[in-house]
Amino acid sequence: MKPTTYREALVWASSLLASINPKIAEWLQLHLMGVERQEWVRSLDDSMSSDALSRYQGWVKAVVDGEPYQYIVGEEDFYGRTFHVSPAVLIPRPETELLVEHVIAYAKRYWADAVSCTMVDIGTGSGAIAVTCALEWDKVRMLAVDISEEALSVASHNANQLGAQVEFLQGDLLQPLLSRKKKVDVLISNPPYIPFSQKEKLDRNVVDFEPHTALFAPEDGLYFYRQLIQQSPSILANQSLLAFEVGIHQAQAVVDFIKHIHPSAKCEVKRDYQGIDRMVLAYIEK
């Protein structure tokens, strides 16, 4: 039977998406209708127009075929805010919220008496980290770097929409900072860290749709950490913090890289929601 109401369409979609996540059926309807959840519940028995039904069915089938629903609706929530996303950027993950949480906690501890704290987010993508840090503490002076013009366009849009003051720079890793002779107190990065050898093991919705330049890295996934850490002495202030999100089984290698370049660094490894070592934070005094 062809669905005629939102409720009937929801039942149909939830069944198709049962093996993925049936809640996606609800999220897609909420976005389709452009209403809050309470109003959506009241409208479930309303009839759907043929155009609305066709659009909804197309979205559901796209998710079944592997497309992330975040790209379909063009947004994802991060740290309590809604960010625009597109296939040009990685979809923000909940684990990265923990990285922001730790960075802000460290910054408030070590720069509590400072007039400001200059941070840079390398490989900013959607700008989720940079925008959130800028909004979470009024002392933050935020810079954000990405090599992709398309990614910077998405990040800039998010900063404008959410009212964050962020200076965006295009370039490869730390080069925009080095060329401008900028110094920062905090360097944050969630760089590509999946080894190319793991490509076939990833879910289709990741491999087929998310940007590979934001996912994969050579040298067992550790290439970008090596580059950032080796270049970091030239851009870090006398008192500074390195903060990285890392892949599974990579934390100790990243700590070792940091200790090689910054022998006096005080390193901490933090776990994610699954208990996996996911973040490396290193406080440095020159």
UniProtKB/TrEMBL annotation:
It comes from the Bacteria. S-adenosyl-L-methionine binds at residues 123-127, 146, 190. InterPro entries: DNA_methylase_N6_adenine_CS, HemK-like, N5-glutamine_MTase, PrmC_N, RF_methyltr_PrmC, SAM-dependent_MTases_sf, Small_mtfrase_dom. Gene3D superfamilies: DNA helicase RuvA subunit, C-terminal domain, Vaccinia Virus protein VP39. Its EC number is 2.1.1.297. It is an enzyme of class 2 (transferase). Substrate binds at residues 190-193. Residues 115-194 form the Methyltransferase small domain. Residues 8-74 form the Release factor glutamine methyltransferase N-terminal domain. One of its GO terms (biological process) is methylation. PROSITE patterns: N6_MTASE. Pfam families: MTS (PF05175), PrmC_N (PF17827). It catalyses: L-glutaminyl-[peptide chain release factor] + S-adenosyl-L-methionine = N(5)-methyl-L-glutaminyl-[peptide chain release factor] + S-adenosyl-L-homocysteine + H(+). GO terms for molecular function: peptide chain release factor N(5)-glutamine methyltransferase activity. Keywords: Methyltransferase, S-adenosyl-L-methionine, Transferase. Methylates the class 1 translation termination release factors RF1/PrfA and RF2/PrfB on the glutamine residue of the universally conserved GGQ motif. Belongs to the protein N5-glutamine methyltransferase family. PrmC subfamily. NCBIfam families: hemK_fam, RF_mod_PrmC. This is Release factor glutamine methyltransferase. It comes from Caldalkalibacillus horti. The lineage of its organism: Bacteria, Bacillati, Bacillota, Bacilli, Bacillales.
